[in-house]
Description:
Number of strands: 5
Order of helices and strands: HEEEHHEE
Number of helices: 3
Shape: globular
CATH class: Alpha Beta
CATH architecture: 3-Layer(aba) Sandwich
Distance between the termini: 33 Å
Strand order of the largest sheet: 1-2-3-4-5
Structural class: alpha+beta
CATH topology: Trna Endonuclease, Chain: A, domain 1
Amino acid sequence: xxxxxxxxxxxxxxxxxxxxxxxxxxxxxxxxxxxxxxxxxxxxxxxxxxxxxxxxxxxxxxxxxxxxxxxxxxxxxxxxxxxxxxxxxxxxxxxxxxxxxxxxxxxxxxxxxxxxxxxx
Length: 120
């Protein structure tokens, strides 16, 4: 990928994450972290609604089908580890149920939210 291609992909990814945060807010979630970095990986979005904490992975691709296929088992494992570190650093979320969501984004489409997409 060329430098301009990487810049474009990064820009699209940032736009997709912003669209997902907005979509979550419309659904009644409170976004408590975005691009949360931990020593074991980054979490795209952490959102809270009711007694649930959603660890959200955003997948943005040219087509929705490509976005849906983009989440690997290895990435799921990394997110579980990153969530454990994040939640250990934020005891205010202790006692809430934690779930792993995926949001799929394609150009000119509203983000598609898949709550509780997988379980560790």
